[in-house]
Model the fold of this input.
Amino acid sequence: MVQTGFANEFTLFIKKIRLQRTIRSRSYITAASKSATSFRFVASRARTVSTSTEKISRCWQRSLSLHLHTHTRHLPAPLSSFSPTSSFLSLSYPLSEGDILVKRNMATIVTSTRFTDEYQLYEELGKGAFSVVRRCVKKSTGQEYAAKIINTKKLSARDHQKLEREARICRLLKHPNIVRLHDSISEEGFHYLVFDLVTGGELFEDIVAREYYSEADASHCINQILESVSHIHQHDIVHRDLKPENLLLASKMKGAAVKLADFGLAIEVQGDQQAWFGFAGTPGYLSPEVLRKDPYGKPVDIWACGVILYILLVGYPPFWDEDQHKLYQQIKAGAYDFPSPEWDTVTAEAKNLINQMLTINPAKRITADQALKHPWVCQRSTVASMMHRQETVECLRKFNARRKLKGAILTTMLVSRNFSGECLISFRHTSETSRKQEIIKITEQLIEAINNGDFEAYTRICDPGLTSFEPEALGNLVEGMDFHKFYFENLLSKNSKPVHTTILNPHVHLIGEDAACIAYIRLTQYMDSQGRPRSSQSEETRVWHRREAKWLNIHFHCSGAPAAPLQ
Done:
């Protein structure tokens, strides 16, 4: 498979092109080739007049021919397309091994290297809608990385453009507080993005595990976040999805660097340009201008930083409502405050910075560079409080649990949707009714395994990374099987009293072809120690995901009284 260093297509963006008889491409692109094949490039933001694709194609061909080194042969007629409405020109040339491309004095030799020639793949680290992340090792150096493997067979043309944009943006960014892209390789049906391997997990999860956490620690965290935002803004990039899930730690070592990740929604802008780039982001972190559908730009990232800083200081967000419409009304009005008693111990300087970040008017909002110079950030040792914030840690733990619950459900939804948000086609040979019955049946089998104390059967039905939110965990989100194993080994397997469980009012919601959510009331009948019949009930929700034709329980949520005596 032919590639040009990072990708199998060489993409060139030129800010201005003159649509006349010639196009100014000198200093942008030269090419040397031994065969009659070349590359694809794209020019954006073209100032359009009435003109034809053929005329533009001839201009590009003639211009490129002038810059062939050592060869005077003309390039073949390209495959071209041009949209006057979007100012977007695309010309494609086939590419042969051995060709050399030069962009601004940077040579890229065309090779036929495959991903597996360069890297060895290992265990899975995570999974998305049409991608999987696996640990990999570069064979030549032994260096570990994280490979994001995207299945491109199911991507639309628009999704391919988004993928190219993400790779292009990530290649620009080289900063200690940003997860760096090291390689991008495209093959038939798959695209590989090779990133830093970050092993420290989420920043917010690390904070709740600390024995000591102060306002000064929060200052240090936001300082690193602002450093990453400043860097991307200097490169005219807007992230658009700053949130706790995208703030990772480089390693599990104390003091590990905070790393900004996931540039899937990032966009390229022109300086301080404000324009409507579409509605994108996560509800609680959206800025007023995005919600109003006004032109926006770099300030949207600062607003999100303000929300994150607020959470870092007290453990809960400034804007919150289960009703999304009401949440958006709060944000557009900038309706937040600093309630007692939790904010009484926060310094005035910290509140001042939040106020400057959460300014409704984006033109008056503080910039990343200005925020880095704020006394609470750059003079934290003397300005920020060193008092341990135990209440913040406890609130943040609950906040994390709510995030994880929503994230688990959202993940299953994404599994069944492509990047354009179009639902996948359901299995042709399975009716909706029968699939719902299938979910009810597998749920009954799981509960039967619990009643019988059969941990082996339980593990066959549950995903190893099962997340659960239940009364026994005291408000914490539990991940993995160890928590449940304790009950199986110490209570369930030793229980000899008869138990009967009934699922009442089951409601199944199918999410595409491979995911489903079931909500029901679990009524448990049992005999107490005195031999008297008892019953208890709980409201439960389970999220299921089908992998390799097998349903696995990936999330469990129980509310109300525990279904005593068994969980």
Notes: Residues 1-111, 412-430, 563-567 have pLDDT under 50 and may be disordered. The chain has three domains: 113-196, 201-400, 431-560.
